[in-house]
Amino acid sequence: MTAKSLVTIKGVKDGLVFLLDDKSDFSDVLHDLRAKLEHTSQFFSGPIVYVDVKLGARSVVDEQKTALVEILRQRGNLLIRSIQCDAESKPQEKGYQVQTLTGIVRSGQVLRHEGNLLFLGDVNPGGLIESTGDVVVCGALRGTVHAGVNGDANAVIVASLFAPTQLRIADVISRPPDEWGVKQAQMEYAYVREGQMQIDKVAHLHRIRQDLNMFKGV
Amino acid sequence: MGEAIVVTSGKGGVGKTTTSANLGTALALQGKKVCMVDTDIGLRNLDVVMGLENRIVYDIVDVVEGRCRLNQALVKDKRFDELYMLPAAQTKDKLAVSPEQVKDIILELKKEFEYIIIDCPAGIEQGFKNAIAGADAAIVVTTPENAAVRDADRIVGLLESANLGSPKLIVNRIRPNMVKSGEMLDIEDVLQVLNIDLIGIVPDDELVIKAANSGEPTVMNPNSKAAIAYRNIARRILGDTVPLMQLHQKKGMMTKMKKFFGIG
Asked: What positions does the domain Septum formation inhibitor MinC C-terminal occupy (chain A) (predicted)?
């Protein structure tokens, strides 16, 4: 046995809580978990017990989660009620994160970005901004912007001067029809509704993106 | 030490060579010691536009490969004593020289000349890299067409990443009548996209073609509007403040009088 157990099992009034160590390697944790379940076979072979798994600060990918569930399922009487980790709740605590960049994206240049981007400058024809989140261009958007590159169809594209060559959100591609044309002093944004690219004035952005909504008091 | 200025555009046929020839000549007209360098190896033109084709003995590739000294390859202009040209080779291609070799040549020339005008080939490949290697500053030439502006934008981006930031812009071949009728991009449209400093505008002028064919830079002909434009640009390079050329014809006396009497 290791000096410090990687898996701690606690009994609560309506089931068991498995606390998994979040510092060590995940495969070690699984190994330890498997060993524990095997060594205390009698304890886990009674009536159905609800199980909550707590991962601590560790964030797991789907395969890791599946492996974990597989091990627990080997015991017929363990019913997994939840798998929680602290990391999941963290981004929500931070709120809407945005990074600000300045410059000009010229023809042939590609700006790749993770997360939400506030770009102060122009995107020229032939230039491309790709971002996993929202893209806000404070300047003239004459080139192409691809928001939600990894498939986030809720992403939006906003620009002070909205004259793009092409827009992409997740896997929806749209060429600006003529009627988009640059209207006077109007800031616009693009979003996806029912698989179609839609354009609206920026004052209506809060209607589709509640998460960006700001509380203004009374 | 002199200053090396590369004249580039990305797109072909917008007037890089014409601009190089005329700026070189205009600077010489101002009494400066100037050398023009043609880096368009394989498709050299600067010598033809300057009317110096038949004086070429050695070229830039001969210098690089050690067949002659740099001074031997320089062709002296027939009009000015202080104007020289280093021709490109016609038989090789762009890969015959490397950016480092061009840089060394430009560095050598800067010791002797006040201005070095480098004529860049079209494209963004080796030829372009060669041309900008030794340059201290860049002039981007474009015409008021979307395709040319697009390529100019690409070039500006590449110049910025090569630390040749803040290049100057020449908008070439403007047709005032077409701009007026909205058929041609106007200078504002071009500047809005490129966002760089304008150093001059050159109106479209048939005399330029005539001059290029006769191997006599336009700038020598004081009757040509383009010549005045090039002279103005040369003065701006020297640091003078020269207002931009007025492209639209001034109203005649009769029109003014009619307007004065309210019948125009």
From this structure: 102-199
Q: Which CATH number fits domain A96-212: 2.60.40.1220, 2.160.20.70, 3.40.640.10, 2.120.10.30?
A: 2.160.20.70
Q: How do residues B108-165 score in pLDDT, each as one tens digit?
A: 999 999 999 999 999 999 999 999 999 999 999 999 999 999 999 999 999 999 998 7
Q: Measured between CB atoms, does A110 come within 8 Å of chain B?
A: no
- Distance from the Cα of B35 to chain A's closest Cα (Å) equals 32
Tokens matching residue B70 = 């740099």
Report the 10 Å Cβ neighbour count for B53: 16
Count Cα neighbours of B156 within 13 Å in the Cβ-side half-sphere: 30
Quote the tokens at residue B171. Answer: 């908008």
Residue among B138, B187, B191 nearest B166 (CA): B138
CATH top class, domain A7-90: alpha beta
What percent of chain A is helix, strand and coil (3-state, nearest 5)? Answer: 20, 35, 40
- Which residue of chain B is at minimal alpha-carbon distance from A125? B150
ipTM for the predicted complex: 0.78
Kindly list the distances between the CA atom of residue A211 and the CA atoms of A169, A214, B20, B206, B228, in Å, as whole numbers in the listed order. 18, 8, 56, 61, 60
Q: Which two tokens stand for residue B160?
A: 């910025």
Q: How far is CA B23 from CA B7, B59, B170, B183, in A?
A: 10, 21, 11, 29
Closest CA to B99 of B58, B153, B47, B41: B41
Encode pLDDT of A92-140 as tens digits.
556 788 999 999 999 999 999 999 999 999 999 999 999 999 999 999 9
Model confidence at B213: pLDDT above 70: yes
Q: Where are the domains of chain B?
A: 3-260
Question: What residues of chain B lie within 8 A of the CB of A108, using their CB?
Answer: 153-154, 157-158
Neighbours of B182 (CB within 10 A): 8
8 Å CB contact between B4 and B118: yes
Is B3-260 CATH 3.30.300.20?
no
A111 and chain B in contact, CB less than 8 A: no
